[in-house]
Amino acid sequence: MRGLAVFLGALLTASSAVAQQPTDRWEKYVAAFEDADSTAPPPKGEIVFVGSSTIHRWDVGAYFPDLKIINRGIDGTELSDAVRYIDRLVLRYEPRLVVVYAGDNDIGGGKISEQVSVDFERFVRAVHAKLPQTRILYIGIKPSPLRWLQIDRMRLANQVISAICERDDRLAFVDFDNLMLGWDEKPRRDLYVEDGLHLSPQGYQLWTAVLRPYLVH
After folding, report:
1. For residue 48, which of 69, 73, 79 has the smallest C-alpha distance?
2. What would you report as the CA-atom Rg of the chain, rounded to the nearest whole angstrom?
3. Across-strand partners of 135?
4. What is the pLDDT of residues 137-182, one digit of tens each?
5. Using CA atoms, how far apart are residues 43 and 115, in angstroms rounded to an integer?
6. What are phi and psi of 71, to 5 degrees?
7. For residue 106, which of 23, 52, 130, 157 sits 20 to 30 Å off, Cα-Cα?
8. How far apart, in whole angstroms, are the C-alpha atoms of residue 32 and residue 38?
């Protein structure tokens, strides 16, 4: 019996460590944003971009020079991370609009499509619990050369999230799937950098042109 108790205790400790790991992993990046805010507080009531590396690498100041956008993307994060840090990455700025791109790493890391859609619903509920008038725009998971074998799971996640957005006027879903495919119905290489995952300047130009109408008042 004592051996069983020791085993269960070790299992709980290991589970706690695993659960704590993602928080520790991203804490330094979130804290860095907070340090920057203390020096130069960004305006409230504007636009927040949040999500993974596709957001982080987006030079929003250059592509949207006429808009006030706060970029809070972090390389490697998943949609669940955006939920975990939502108070510090999103809600503190009281944005009128939140633009989200996450889910790519989730599917790439082995999560099922349904989990991504559940995390999106959690994100929406967390935002609207404190900011009921804030609009949320979700950018559908993009097709990419690197993760082309996972495109079916990505499309299923997109389909479910799109249906969620259709039920609420405060939500919008933007799908880049077909726009990023060539004649062969495969991802256009010119829209990606050499790694086949991250967007090239041409890719960001495409995204900027499509998103702009959603960002203006």
Report:
1. 69
2. 19
3. 97
4. 999 999 999 999 999 999 999 999 999 999 999 999 999 999 999 9
5. 33
6. -95, 120
7. 130
8. 10
Identify which of 203, 210, 175, 173 has the alpha carbon closest to the alpha carbon of residue 188. 203
For the stretch 86-114, pLDDT in tens is: 999 999 999 999 999 999 999 999 999 99
Which one-letter amino acid corresponds to residue 128? Answer: H
CB within 8 A of 105, min separation 6: which ones?
52, 76, 77, 78
Alpha-carbon span 131 to 23, nearest angstrom: 24
**The two structure tokens encoding residue 194:** 């050499």
CA distances from 168 to 17, 18, 26, 57, 174 (A): 37, 35, 31, 29, 14
Residue with tokens 């079916």: 152
Task: Find all residues with CB under 8 Å of 161, minimum gap 6, and list them.
Answer: 103, 116, 117, 120, 138, 140, 173
